[in-house]
Structures are given as C-alpha cells and as structure tokens.
Design goal:
The chain is an all-alpha fold. The protein contains seven helices and no strands. The protein is globular, with a radius of gyration of 15 Å. The two termini are 26 Å apart. Pfam families: CMD. Residues 12-97 form the Carboxymuconolactone decarboxylase-like domain.
Length: 145
C-alpha cells in the first residue's frame, strides 16, 4: 500500500484532531502547567512513538520557548538525570504510561506532584500527541534537513 496523507484524504477528521489538540493545550494552561512542560511531554511521546516529524517540530518549539539543549538531550532518559523537577518527572512518567499501554502495575508518577486537573491535562495532551504521531507516521510526512 502506498502512503496516504491522512490530512489531505480526510481534512475534516484532521481538523477535528486539531481542535482536540487545541483543547488539550488549553487544558494544560488552565491547569497551571508550564508551556515548556507541555513541549517536553510532546517530545517524550514522540520519542516513544518514533515520530521524527513531531520530534523536530516540538524540539524547535521548545527551543523557541526557552528550553535548554541539556534538558532536551536527556529527556529520553529523564529518570536518570537531575534536570527535571518532581512535577516534570511525574508528568513525563504519566505521559509514558498513557503512551505505553497496557498500563504497568502501580502509578510510579503519582507522587502528589500533579493536581487532578494537571493529571487530566497531561493525559489529554499525551492522547492528542499520540494521535498526531500516528497521523504523521502513517502519512509518511517528510523530515529532511
């Protein structure tokens, strides 16, 4: 089967996903989470899913928002570094749990660093990012220099 650009084949479905993503971003803001944390979650989800298109996009977005290259370099192994706050660590672990279903026993991320609203916001952000990764990978979006 040839690669099909999902966004061009069914633009109304693409627009619905865009609306979901916009609402997930708004939930992050409403929950009082840092925009850089949202980018880290998007990057980590995209790393897990192997989505080069989204990795490039959200790494660039993170840099524009002031993220450091040191933190970006170690986000794939965040649990081994001392670069991330307890809230960031909890959010990254939660995003991994949402992405890597089936859910492992226990909630390693649930250390009280996130409020219920923040847990919901990060979960929706990860759900939306997983959807975007699947659109980009399935559509074979080009990623070149």
């Amino acid at each position: 089967m040839n690669a099909v650009n999902l966004s061009k084949q069914h633009p109304t479905v693409y627009q619905a996903l865009l609306a979901l993503s916009t609402q997930a971003d708004a939930a992050v803001t409403e929950a009082g989470l840092d925009p850089l944390l949202a980018e880290l979650v998007k990057i980590r989800v995209s790393q897990i899913n192997g989505c080069a298109f989204c990795l490039r996009m959200h790494t660039r977005d993170a840099v524009q928002k002031g993220e450091t290259t040191d933190r970006l370099a170690v986000v794939a192994a965040w649990w081994e570094s001392q670069y991330f706050s307890p809230q960031e660590r909890a959010a990254l672990a939660l995003a991994e749990e949402v992405t890597d279903l089936p859910v492992p026993a226990g909630h390693d991320w649930d250390d009280g660093s996130l409020t219920d609203a923040q847990v919901s916001a990060i979960s929706w952000l990860a759900v939306a990012m997983n959807a975007w990764n699947r659109v980009a990978i399935t559509s074979h979006y080009p990623v070149g220099p």
